[in-house]
Specification:
This protein has about 260 residues and is an all-beta fold. The protein has one helix at about 260, and strands at about 10, 20, 25-30, 35-40, 40-45, 55, 65-70, 80-90, 90-100, 110, 125, 130, 140-145, 150-155, 160-165, 165-170, 175-180, 190-200, 205-210, 215-220, 235, 240-245, 250.
Length: about 260
């Protein structure tokens, strides 16, 4: 018996939104108060955001904690119509939630999350696992695979890393990242910084700068279980360094990070 692949159930609204019913149990908490408890979340992709957001049926949101926004922002989200302030124990988070005008999502409320610290709830959970930064895209893969390829990294003509035991990280929509054991990295050419970043697929990263490039390398001291193979290994931004793999110099890719890295 042949099983056909599952068709991606993404729908499109006239406003340019993409949305898809989710199957994960999602909760959002502000302090000790559960604001959202949903077994019927909807993933929404806005035209100008690279990652999805969650919207929830009104019945699964504590609407008694929401008030019409006193200072609604000008068009922060694609087609957003009505904004709400979140009020808990005398504390107010302005514009923490909103509705979309799309008829398909008329009975749903979305919450601030992506790149929005202190503008939404404090903690989000999928099933029993806390997640960070933004919801995980169910159509995105992140695979960390040990390799024996010869990888060399150079900055301004100077070799800063050379290994035959990298871990290659393949992430949908991004170039392959080459994670290198610290013993194979010239740490005398790098300086640790206080910069950090969060990823819902990998965890929290710490960074290093070179003499000419800020925060050019990173590592995950405590990666999420799915990418445990990259623990404490160091990767470099392909966008602005020279990476040679098995003797072949790789092209520098253009990614959403490129412009920031060149500044």
């Amino acid at each position: 018996m042949t099983t056909l692949p599952t068709v991606r159930a993404v729908r499109t609204t006239p406003e340019g939104l993409l949305w898809e019913p989710g199957e994960r149990w999602v909760r959002g908490r502000k302090g000790e108060v559960t604001v959202v408890d949903s077994r019927h979340p909807v993933l929404v992709w806005e035209p100008d955001l690279p990652v999805p957001l969650y919207a929830f049926p009104r019945a699964e949101v504590r609407e008694n904690l929401l008030r019409p926004a006193k200072n609604p922002p000008p068009a922060r989200h694609a087609g957003s119509q009505v904004f709400y302030d979140l009020e808990i124990d005398g504390s107010t988070v302005e514009n923490a939630a909103w509705t979309y005008p799309a008829a398909d999502l008329a009975d749903h409320i979305a919450f601030e999350w992506f790149r929005a610290p202190n503008r939404g709830v404090d903690h989000w959970y999928e099933e029993e696992e806390e997640i960070f930064v933004h919801p995980r895209d169910p159509h995105k893969r992140v695979d960390a695979i040990p390799s024996s390829r010869h990888v060399r990294v150079a900055i301004d003509g100077t070799t800063v890393a050379d290994t035959h035991r990298p871990v290659l990280l393949f992430e949908t929509g991004l170039p392959t990242r080459y994670y290198i054991p610290r013993e194979d990295v010239r740490d005398d050419l790098l300086e640790a910084t206080d910069h950090t970043s969060g990823c819902p697929y990998k965890g929290t990263a710490r960074y290093w700068s070179s003499r000419t490039l800020a925060n050019i390398a990173w590592s995950y001291p405590e990666p999420l279980p799915a990418v445990a193979a990259v623990k404490d290994l160091i990767a470099f931004y392909n966008e602005v360094v020279d990476i040679t793999v098995d003797g072949e110099l790789q092209e520098r890719p253009e990614t959403p990070f490129s412009d920031t890295l060149r500044k």
